[in-house]
């Protein structure tokens, strides 16, 4: 019997990629999982896969982390169903475009990245952590990026959002000192998911990002999430930086 069978993990952006892989991996460890995403059709597929493997039906609900009302309704529904929240994986996030700052004509791209990657993370954290404190057990895991540690041309706003995630993570850890809540950031390099398609708007361009090298896959990052979440309560993994062997930094890759 899993020692996590009574614990509840909330995953945002759980309909695909790292979010979906992490939800499946956490459920495999015995966690009850609550899935949120905008695409409910894909979310249902993830929930079905989890139920088929574990026999336990996950909680799922439409969620746009950019909308405060959505976040409040989602967290309230999770708390009502399970009576507790133990893990929050702030995974929802995106990059839009690679246009230099002075050439960007569509500020909507900036708004989407800032509202999702930063504001959404803050809203989810604010609403869930009080439940963790009340339950005497909690862990906030933020999905960052090496872009939050090393800025690059064409990524000013995306990098800024991920630098913000790292700052929020570090500040939150200090703010919660003395409370039964751990705080972790997982910062990947190149991961072959739908991320680059969303960013570049084209599958061929996205494929070129990973051409000639072996990138990470969503399951690799899910492994990191599970590792952090399953440590003993007195152990806090502050940060995990994970890159493919073929990558040494942003834009520093070996291609064959």
UniProtKB/TrEMBL annotation:
Keywords: Oxidoreductase
Top-level taxonomic group: Bacteria
Pfam (any one): adh_short
Molecular function (Gene Ontology), one example: oxidoreductase activity, acting on the CH-OH group of donors, NAD or NADP as acceptor
Residue ranges the record marks as coiled coil: none
InterPro entries: NAD(P)-bd_dom_sf, Sc_DH/Rdtase_CS, SDR_fam
PANTHER family named in the record: ALCOHOL DEHYDROGENASE (PTHR42901:SF1)
Similarity remark: Belongs to the short-chain dehydrogenases/reductases (SDR) family.
The protein, known as: NAD(P)-dependent oxidoreductase
Record organism: Tumebacillus avium
């Amino acid at each position: 019997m899993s020692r996590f069978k009574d614990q509840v993990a909330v995953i945002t952006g759980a309909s695909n990629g790292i979010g979906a892989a992490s939800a499946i991996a956490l459920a495999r460890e015995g966690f009850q999982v609550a899935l949120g995403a905008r695409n409910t059709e894909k979310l249902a597929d993830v929930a079905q896969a989890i139920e088929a493997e574990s026999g336990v039906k996950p909680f799922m609900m439409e969620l746009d982390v950019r909308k405060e009302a959505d976040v409040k309704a989602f967290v309230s529904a999770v708390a009502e169903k399970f009576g507790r929240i133990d893990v929050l994986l702030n995974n929802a996030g995106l990059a839009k475009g690679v246009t230099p700052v002075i050439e960007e004509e569509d500020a909507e791209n900036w708004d989407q990245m800032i509202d999702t990657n930063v504001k959404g993370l803050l809203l989810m954290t604010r609403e869930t952590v009080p439940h963790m404190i009340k339950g005497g057990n909690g862990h906030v895991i933020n999905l960052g990026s090496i872009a939050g540690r090393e800025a690059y041309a064409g990524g000013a706003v995306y990098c800024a959002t991920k630098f913000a995630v790292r700052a929020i993570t570090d500040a939150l850890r200090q703010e919660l000192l003395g409370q039964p809540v751990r705080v972790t950031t997982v910062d990947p390099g190149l991961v072959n998911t739908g991320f680059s398609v969303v960013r570049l708007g084209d599958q061929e361009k996205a494929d070129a990002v990973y051409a000639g090298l072996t990138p990470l896959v969503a399951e690799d990052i899910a492994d990191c999430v599970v590792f952090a979440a399953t440590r003993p309560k007195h152990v806090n993994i502050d940060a995990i930086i994970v890159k493919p062997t073929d990558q040494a930094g942003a834009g520093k890759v070996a291609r064959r």
